[in-house]
Design goal:
With about 475 residues, this protein is of the alpha+beta class. It has 2 domains: about 260 residues, Butyryl-CoA Dehydrogenase, subunit A, domain 2 (Beta Barrel); about 190 residues, Up-down Bundle (Butyryl-CoA Dehydrogenase, subunit A, domain 3), CATH 1.20.140. It has 16 helices and 14 strands. The mean pLDDT is about 95.
């Protein structure tokens, strides 16, 4: 047991981001991601991961044996349940937006432990894991290659850099080139872990590579998406003005990777195994961090119905029941995925049941837009026709707004709830969450494919044969 915990403070985390990392936003190089008008918001949101453990009553959940609980290697269902609870509560602390600077990286670390066990890379994985755990580091995972022509694999592309590949091998490491896309929080982490995105075939050894590099590594360039850029008015955007994510096109412009940072190289079979193993853990993380969002939909529907004076309408009760059923089904499947966990025989590490995990993720994604529609129907058109923050702050206009936007509750209460709902359901953040629901951590089709692969039909088929008298 470690006597005192080794978690960094938010201030120590932010100070660690001030280095020579190459970050670009809206065409310009960013000198300091912690003070930039947009990326500074992202940095402060990410820092909540370190602030969470300092909240009253949270240390027992957030700290294990002196280290961040995120770095605990799961051995049983209880460990997975505890991890899920940490992710859920930390996301709620982030006002429905996942913090994700330790969640995704530690998913990768567990997957690397499982796949590298018994191989020549096991010591490198263990050493890097301890480096991240002991330093309480923030981690990003770059997995999704840009892919080019998706009808072709890595070796069939006209441009071989459409998948990250080794372009030079040296005695002390390798040089890699290519780009990964959809890499979350890359400008706001200490280390970037790179994993294969798919199974490889013979002849694609150069693309079968996994490694990690510090974010400030020479040749690593981070091109930020500006999708969540907005006027950041906290009155009309109470969530997204203070809580933002950023994704990057993560370019490896002939980046050198030392030998002790390489976790897989040239093994096409294990490349596919690592890609799938990471997904087994990361989709469990995904459904865990969706729980505050589905709870918010239920709560907002209830508050909006009250504010509009329609809480007793039968169609509203019907919508509320559907929303409750949606939220609790996703939560129940998430917990069941942990309870049904399996143990990797080689490493002894626990992983969530793949079928149940994908059922939870599929249920969330499949039914998300129906849930949003129900809340919008209860809210009404004020989601997009309501006043702005400048109007509300105007001494001349505010009396009219208070008079004419009052409902069953006073105008200030009604509009406060309406603005949260608008931010979550109708503005830039809503569009962001809408796309995440369909594509983040795997598309609907990917989840359905995994459910089909994971289900053993033998018992059901045998029972059906028995009922039909075929035995």
């Amino acid at each position: 047991m470690v006597a005192a915990h080794r978690l960094r403070t938010p201030e120590q985390y932010l100070e660690g981001l001030r280095d020579s990392r190459e970050v670009f936003y809206q065409g310009a190089k960013v000198e300091d991601v912690t003070t930039h008008p947009e990326l500074g918001i992202v940095s402060r949101h990410a820092a909540l991961d370190f602030a969470f453990s300092e909240q009253p009553g949270k240390e027992e959940l957030a700290v294990t044996d002196g280290y961040s609980t995120y770095f605990q290697l799961p051995r049983n269902a209880a460990d997975l349940r505890r991890r899920s609870s940490l992710i859920e509560q930390a996301t709620a602390f982030g006002k429905t937006l996942v913090l994700l600077i330790k969640e995704i990286g530690t998913d990768a670390l567990v997957a690397l432990h499982r796949v590298a066990h018994g191989t020549e890379y096991a010591d490198a994985v263990t050493s890097f894991y301890e480096h991240c755990r002991d330093g309480d580091l923030a981690l990003a995972v770059a997995q999704t290659d840009v892919k080019g022509d998706r009808s072709k694999g890595p070796s069939g592309q006209d441009d071989p850099d459409m998948y990250v590949r080794v372009v030079e091998r040296r005695d002390d490491g390798v040089v890699v080139r290519g780009a990964k896309v959809h890499t979350s929080y890359t400008p706001n982490v200490d280390e970037v872990i790179v994993l294969p995105t798919r199974a490889m075939q013979e002849g694609e050894e150069d693309w079968a590579i996994a490694f990690a590099v510090p974010t400030a590594t020479k040749g690593l360039k981070l091109l930020c998406s500006d999708y969540l850029a907005s006027d950041n008015d906290p009155w009309t955007r109470p969530i997204s003005s203070q809580h933002k994510m950023v994704e990057t096109l993560t370019v490896f412009d002939d980046v050198f990777v030392p030998s002790d940072r390489i976790f897989l190289d040239g093994d096409v079979r294990r490349a596919g195994e690592l890609a799938l193993t990471f997904v087994e853990h990361h989709r469990f993380t995904a459904v865990s961090y969706k729980l505050p969002l589905v709870d918010a939909l239920v709560g907002l529907a209830g508050l909006l119905a009250e504010a509009n004076g329609i809480g007793r309408a039968s169609h509203v009760r019907d919508k509320l029941v559907a929303l409750i059923g949606y939220a609790e089904t996703v939560r129940g499947l998430t917990h069941l995925a942990a309870d049904r966990c399996r143990i990797d025989e080689a490493s002894g590490l626990a992983y969530p049941d793949p079928m149940t995990t994908n059922l939870a993720k599929w249920t969330f994604a499949r039914d998300y837009h129906d849930a949003v529609e129900r809340v919008i129907d209860i809210a009404g058109g004020l989601l997009v026709t309501g006043p702005g923050g400048a109007d509300w702050r105007s001494d001349e206009l505010r009396p009219y707004l208070e008079k004419y936007f009052a409902g069953a509750t006073p105008a200030d209460e009604r509009l406060a709830v309406m603005n949260v709902a608008s931010d979550l359901l109708a503005r830039e953040y809503a569009g962001y969450q809408s796309v995440l629901a369909v594509h983040a951590e795997g598309s609907l089709e990917a989840e359905k494919m995994m459910i089909y692969r994971s289900y053993d039909p033998s018992a059901a088929l045998a029972y059906a044969r028995e009922l039909a008298g075929l035995d």
